[in-house]
Fold:
Amino acid sequence: MLLRAIRNQRKIRRKRIKVLFLLVINYFFIHIVNIGEADVMKRVFSMLGVLVLVLFSFYYTEKVALFIRSRDPLYQEIVNVASSYEVAFVNAVIDDETIVPGNYGKKVNIDKSYSNMMRLGKFNESLLVFEEVVPDITSNKQFDKYIVGGNPERDAVGLVFVVQDDTYVKQVATILQNKDVSATFFVDGTWAENNMDTLESLAKDGNEIENIGYDGSYVKERLLWTNNLIESITKVEPKYCYTKYRSASTLDLCSSYHMYTVRPTIITGSYPFSSVKQKLTKGAIIHFDLTENTVKELSTIISYIHQKGYRIEILSHLLSENEIVDK
Structure:
């Protein structure tokens, strides 16, 4: 009965809208056209009075519909459970020149969820409609700060490899593939020019390809050129610059091109496994040099990270604020 009443109220509102439209058109042609200027204002005020009355009837009808809906047990059930599905947003953390991204929250859109379930006539979790809740503070467009990690609310880390020559690139790629893991490779423009097939293969395996500069450094004349080269091969536009340590020149240049600059949380050095074991935290960006020790220990490191309950993600996922953390 309640559902039928709500549908009837909607039909009434649609009919009244049509009546209002015809009333305005009719009133205009009958009472405004071909009258003297002196009577125009009088007729306009009269028409406005009619419109106010009709609009008030719309308002009253809507209130009745809201009242009926609020008494529907289905609507009340959605209202009662909505809070249990809510996920609070997490603000980005800004500390002087560094930033750690936040995370979006989510909440139930009660009205849309109710509309979805009306035809079924009962509650169904799969028909709930959710909407994102944007944090008050986000990393979006914060190009002038170093991103130094992913949000610690998420059980994930990222692996980063800097490629400036062929040393151990294919060996590392094979290990990642065998472990079903993807990483982020920051590649030098000179290397990319001469190794397009390898670059394409890395991308096809699910790895992320970003720009580490040209001939070992970021320079204005080559930044966009290298970006375009990478995009032409991977079909994805690079969005990150990278520096192991503070570099004002890198931060300024990349910021001017609306690119984010990333600094690692962990620099593994000569003893990769030992460094990861001592310093591993949620959201860590882990830097690896392409060395013999890295190749020897990478498989063990990946297994250790998984044993600690962490996922391994490419940077664009790890640093995304749209990756909602469910309860």
Observations:
- DSSP finds twelve helices and 13 strands in the chain.
- Residues 2-71 form one domain.
- The chain has three domains: 2-71, 74-133, 146-318.
